[in-house]
């Protein structure tokens, strides 16, 4: 996999390069400031990009802006965004307009190498990878919404879907059958007023888009 890394912290940036190359991936470019990100993405058109949200010179949302602009110019460009904290507004903006091939992880997750690499590979394949803490924020802050009608089990299934897991993984995690998971997913979509679907990450994107526009 060809990857572009955008991270202003030199130590973390070099750590990401080492981690990815050790896993057999090729880092085709690195960027340390916001203005460097978009040109690198447009030049190399990588299989995936790993971007910090806040970068110089303003340390606001330079990385996020570059990601959104790059995806506008290269539709479907897989992007995994890293953030120091859960910033719901950034997650919502990232997901606006469809989130195929998008991920949002807290930087602490990078230290869990297998989880990080798995998330990156899911994103590169067109899936979704949201940090569990981000999912929790998205779910718990929505009061007085159709989410209130979900059972505890359905909320668990929705959270695991939002993290990007497939039916088999959800079934193993909750120690239930895949048939039961399929049924719960159908109930979730029904209660949220969304058409029932089991079409991989599209179901996750539909749910998250719904949540982010409440």
UniProtKB/TrEMBL annotation:
Which InterPro entries does the record match to this protein?
A: CheY-like_superfamily (IPR011006), NreC/VraR/RcsB-like_REC (IPR058245), Sig_transdc_resp-reg_C-effctor (IPR016032), Sig_transdc_resp-reg_receiver (IPR001789), Tscrpt_reg_LuxR_C (IPR000792), WalR-like (IPR039420)
Q: What is this protein called?
A: Response regulator transcription factor
Q: Where does the record place the HTH luxR-type domain?
A: 143-214
4-aspartylphosphate sites (modified residues): 52
Q: Could you tell me the keywords of this UniProt record?
A: DNA-binding, Phosphoprotein, Transcription, Transcription regulation
> Has the keyword Transcription been applied to this entry?
yes
The record's section on Pfam families has: GerE, Response_reg
Upper lineage is: Bacteria, Bacillati, Actinomycetota, Actinomycetes, Kitasatosporales
Asked if the Swiss-Prot or TrEMBL record annotates the protein with the keyword Lipid biosynthesis, the reply is no
Signal sequence, start to end? none
Which ranges carry the Response regulatory domain? Answer: 2-122
Q: Which organism is it from?
A: Streptomyces longisporus
């Amino acid at each position: 996999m060809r990857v572009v890394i955008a991270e202003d912290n030199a130590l973390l940036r070099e750590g990401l390069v080492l981690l990815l190359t050790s896993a057999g991936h090729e880092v085709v470019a690195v960027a340390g400031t916001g203005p460097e990100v978009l040109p690198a993405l447009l030049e190399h058109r990588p299989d995936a990009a790993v971007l910090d949200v806040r970068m110089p010179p303003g340390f606001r949302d330079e990385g996020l802006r570059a990601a959104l602009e790059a995806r506008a110019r290269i539709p479907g460009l897989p992007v995994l965004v890293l953030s120091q904290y859960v910033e719901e507004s950034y997650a919502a903006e990232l997901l606006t307009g469809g989130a195929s091939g998008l991920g949002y992880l807290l930087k602490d997750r990078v230290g869990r190498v297998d989880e990080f690499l798995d998330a990156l590979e899911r994103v590169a394949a067109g899936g979704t990878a949201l940090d569990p803490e981000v999912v929790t924020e998205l779910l718990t802050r929505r009061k007085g919404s159709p989410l209130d009608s979900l059972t505890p089990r359905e909320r668990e299934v929705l959270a695991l879907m939002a993290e990007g897991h497939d039916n088999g993984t959800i079934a193993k995690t909750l120690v239930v059958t895949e048939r039961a998971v399929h049924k719960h997913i159908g109930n979730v979509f029904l209660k949220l007023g969304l058409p029932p679907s089991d079409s991989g990450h599209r179901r996750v994107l539909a749910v998250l888009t719904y949540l982010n526009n409440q």
